[in-house]
Amino acid sequence: MQNTRWLLTVALLLASGPAAAQGQPAPMAAPPPVPHGYYQGRPFSAADLAYRRGRRLRKAGIVLVCVGVPVAVLGGLAIGGTAGSCAGPNDGENWGCMGEIMGYGMAVAGVGSLAAGIGLWTVGARKMKQAEAQGATRLSLAPGPPRSTGVGLRLTFW
Length: 158
Fold this sequence. Notes:
Blueprint: H1 2-16, E1 38-39, E2 42-43, H2 46-81, H3 96-133
Antiparallel strand pairs: 1-2
């Protein structure tokens, strides 16, 4: 008897459907997301997308070169400043040996960053030139700052 009441109650609840909210506005749906490669509903051309990919590679290469050069120079200075201090027996108080090891580590990391940065920089620049040859525009379609007239160019450092 109890099972029958329980099944009947569940069946009535399922058959009645969702309860309507009274006095509340219908929830608003979020606008659909803009797919990658589109600006204000217009798709970018394949050349523009290739230009953007090349520009991202070039910017990453510039950052790696700008970080790698000072790190390699500081590593070389650390090696030169502590040269010969690691030659004696291990007496436990020889901190120059640690400086020399850190200098070699910094030099290797700096040169590695420099090599990767030069590679990314050149590949990105080559891809940008190829995209320009295919008809890519160098102007940015990014919206301007708030309260702008809507007309203008976006200047970049490079």
